From TrEMBL:
Mg(2+) binds at residues 73, 92, 94-95. The keyword Transcription regulation does not apply. Keywords: Hydrolase, Magnesium, Metal-binding. Its cofactor is Mg(2+). Belongs to the inositol monophosphatase superfamily. It comes from Lasiodiplodia hormozganensis. This is Protein QA-X. It comes from the Eukaryota. GO terms for biological process: inositol metabolic process; signal transduction. The keyword Magnesium applies. Gene3D superfamilies: 3.40.190.80, Fructose-1,6-Bisphosphatase, subunit A, domain 1. GO terms for molecular function: inositol monophosphate 1-phosphatase activity; metal ion binding.
Length: 316
């Protein structure tokens, strides 16, 4: 099944309506960490509001597009089978649940339409900030907030200045829910290398400690615990990269790129579970250089995350 741009724009506009309705449910809730139910461990949680919001979204989307598949963060989707080739909704009703239960505003409704395993429409909405990111394949990506530019949508990127390597980069990170084992160890190793001053740096740069072998001395590491919002900030050019998908379409339509979180794969599948998002930049060669520098930081380290068996990439 293929879609023309006007069809994708109509879907995008409907997703915005649904996202804002879901946002009203989120902002009217009164969550607390005591209400959270543990899924995998105490860092991987779900609330009654997550489930209620997902039910609302599923009801709206299935009623309007009954022939499309639905994959929700809180649904019983079999991740081992991956996302199929047909039109599929990919929904995270509350991206940033831990922020939500602690009263932090970095919380988003994340809605995507994936066709032939390619994200073609994406809407990410933060109801607490009333901040909207949206995109349709072939029609660009936009940012909209009532308090900025008279509330008018602004085409992304907001910033596409040249990339100057990791030393000058604001890097988005996420610790994930694994807090032991190889995945956690790799995260800590990469984060430490990104943050540390290089061994050859002067004492004025590294505080007199001599630096760390391979240290990149990145300008900033930011962890918001809301992946969709972070990828959108990369798309906007407000952050340079994010190591860790509705946000995928926003990123690529803005001119950013999404590559594998492991070195070597420039075209990861939608359900890869490990990603490196890099912001739009002129010249685009800066994106390639930043990716290769980041991959060098990872080196031989590998996480156990990856796509389902047999899922190699997009079908179109």
């Amino acid at each position: 099944m293929s879609f023309h741009v006007p069809e994708l724009l109509a879907i995008r506009d409907y997703l915005v309506i649904v996202a804002k309705e879901a946002g009203e449910m989120i902002t009217s809730a009164k969550p607390s960490s005591a209400d959270a139910i543990t899924k995998k461990n105490t860092t991987d949680i779900v609330t009654a509001t997550d489930k209620a919001v997902e039910n609302l979204i599923a009801t709206r989307l299935i009623a309007r597009y009954p022939e499309y598949d639905f994959v929700g963060e809180e649904s019983s989707f079999d991740a081992s089978k991956g996302i199929g080739p047909g039109p599929t909704w990919v929904v995270d009703p509350i991206d940033g649940t831990s922020n939500f239960v602690h009263g932090l505003p970095e919380v988003c409704v994340s809605l995507a339409l994936v066709v032939a395993r390619v994200p073609v429409v994406g809407v990410v909405y933060n109801p607490f900030l009333q901040e909207l990111f949206s995109a349709a394949r072939g029609a660009g990506a936009y940012h909209q907030q009532p308090t900025l530019h008279g509330g008018e949508p602004q085409r992304l990127p907001l910033n596409n200045t040249p990339l100057a390597g990791l030393r000058h980069a604001c890097v988005g990170i996420d610790f994930g829910s694994d807090r032991a084992g190889p995945n956690f160890a790799l995260n800590l190793s990469v984060f430490a290398t990104l943050a540390a001053a290089p061994a050859s740096s002067s004492s004025s740069d590294d505080g007199g400690g001599g630096g760390v072998r391979g240290g990149r001395f990145a300008h900033s590491l930011r962890a918001t615990n809301c992946a969709s919002e972070t990828v959108c900030r990369v798309a906007a050019g407000q952050q340079d990269c994010f190591w860790e998908p509705a946000a995928w379409c926003v990123l690529t339509e803005a001119g950013g790129i999404m590559v594998d979180g492991h070195p070597g794969n420039w075209h990861p599948p939608i359900d890869n579970r490990r990603y490196l998002a890099v912001r739009p930049a002129e010249p685009a060669s800066g994106q390639t250089e930043l990716v290769e520098e980041f991959w060098d930081v990872i080196g031989e380290g590998r996480s156990t995350y990856g796509p389902p068996a047999g899922q190699d990439g997009p079908l179109a």
